[in-house]
Amino acid sequence: MLIVGASRGIGLGLVDVHLEAGWKVHATVRDGSAPGNHPDLTTHQLDVRERDQLETLISDLHEPVDRIIHNAGIKRAARSDLIEVNAIAPIRVVEALLEAGRLKQDGTVAIMTSQMGSRGGRSSSLGDYGDSKAALNDEFRKRSSRWHDAGAIAIVMHPGWVKTDMGGQGASLTISESVDGIIEVLDGLTSDDHGKFLTWDGRVQPW
Ligand SMILES: NC(=O)c1ccc[n+]([C@@H]2O[C@H](COP(=O)([O-])OP(=O)(O)OC[C@H]3O[C@@H](n4cnc5c(N)ncnc54)[C@H](OP(=O)(O)O)[C@@H]3O)[C@@H](O)[C@H]2O)c1
To answer: What is the pLDDT of residues 90-140, one digit of tens each?
Structure first.
């Protein structure tokens, strides 16, 4: 499996729990330093904005994985950076991996979005961060049937409000609670779930 954005927070939690469960994990970090020391962990350098690093990752992966989690994201940044990192890059990264055949047939893809990107029928701005996640959700929905044709079972996921650098210590969930929920949802995905917006505890989130 591959986790994009694994240096800290939810991404690091996902690495640890998948390793404990016996997965072989490819993890990406921006500075290239390993997010842990485990024989089943391979670290790759990737800033999701950098196309040449994405090409290197694809070539270094060699073979398809059965799960891709695009976790990298930012919150406190200029609007243009939020759009680039939260909306454009996840789609580009996942699409490049699919086109290069780096996901097994019926493998799963989860992109971390946020319920703050849930419009619920509103046309007004959701704030810069919310707008960037709404744009991600829109692009995901546009590509959803093509990704399914490429053999993926893909969803976007709200991880809950989680105690990380981004979520803050006042958040309602620990990293471990969120990660355990996310993994239970991913373990249970079937083809019928493709294209959904799901929460860490398996509920369907309105677009
Ligand atoms: N925490 C919450 O309550 C919450 C709620 C809803 C959605 N989410 C979403 O869940 C995901 C993880 O959130 P988190 O709370 O774990 O955030 P976090 O603690 O701030 O960690 C963010 C992760 O994204 C990586 N990242 C940021 N920009 C990147 C880039 N350009 N290229 C590659 N990696 C990059 C960071 O790497 P560096 O260490 O190199 O910066 C870090 O590993 C995000 O997509 C976030 O929007 C979080």
So the answer is: 999 999 999 999 999 999 999 999 999 999 888 899 999 999 999 999 999
Tell me the CA–centroid distance for residue 85 and ligand 1, in Å: 10
What is the spatial distance between Cα 206 and Cα 122, in angstroms, rounded to a whole number? 12
Please give the structure tokens belonging to residue 9. Answer: 């927070």
pLDDT, one tens digit per residue, over 130-149 is: 999 999 999 999 999 999 99
Q: Give dist(CA 26, CA 131) in Å, integer.
A: 30
Domain 2-199 has CATH 3.20.20.80: no
For ligand 1, say whether the CB of 73 is within 6 Å of any of its atoms: yes
Q: Tell me if 102 sits within 8 A of 188, measured CB to CB.
A: no
pTM value is 0.98
Amino acid sitting at position 72: A
